[in-house]
Amino acid sequence: MPQRLSISAIVFFLLMILAGLYFAFAAVQGPSGILRRVQLEAETQDLVAERDRLKSEVDSMSNLTKRLSDDYLDIDLLDERARAVLGIIRADEVIIR
Predict the structure, then answer these.
(1) Rounded CA gap, 97 and 92, in Å?
(2) Three-state SS for 68?
(3) Which InterPro entries match (predicted)?
(4) What is the pLDDT of residue 30?
(5) Contacting residues for 30 by C-beta, under 8 A, at least 6 apart
(6) Rounded CA gap, 74 and 68, in Å?
(7) How far apart are CA 86 and CA 39, in angstroms?
(8) Is 77:67 a contact under the CB 8 Å cutoff?
(9) Which of the 8 DSSP states describes residue 89?
(10) In terms of DSSP H, where are the helices of 30-86?
(11) Are the CB atoms for 36 and 30 separated by under 8 Å?
(12) In terms of Cα–Cα distance, which of 69, 49, 85 is closest to 57?
């Protein structure tokens, strides 16, 4: 004659199954879960790309600042910036828009 499981054994197994399901759900959806990790990695890649873009922009500005400094003066750059800011042209130039 086969033995039947008691009520307490059935309740125990159901609780264990529910606990396993909860931990599986938390491993996927929780604050430290797999989906959150994928989201954080995507945000990290976006932030690294933005950092690199900003770094190149800072390097470009640093180069322009150095070229317009008292120690090293680039006359062509100074002329270009003065024309852009003041809107001045030479008498022998033609403006094409």
Answers:
(1) 17
(2) strand
(3) FtsL/DivIC
(4) 83
(5) 36
(6) 6
(7) 48
(8) yes
(9) -
(10) 34-67, 75-86
(11) yes
(12) 49
Gyration radius of the chain over CA positions: 34
> What was the pLDDT predicted at 1?
59
Give the pLDDT confidence score for residue 45 in this predicted structure: 97
List 68's β-bridge partners, or say none. 73
pLDDT of the chain, 97 residues: tens digit per residue: 567 879 999 999 999 999 999 999 888 888 888 888 999 999 999 999 999 999 999 999 999 888 888 888 888 888 888 888 888 888 887 878 7
Please indicate, yes or no, whether the overall pTM of this predicted structure exceeds 0.70.
no
User: CA–CA separation, 10 vs 3, rounded Å?
Assistant: 13
Would you state the pLDDT for residue 16? Answer: 97
Structure tokens at 12: 């125990």
Closest-CA residue to 63 (of 77, 82, 80, 51):
77
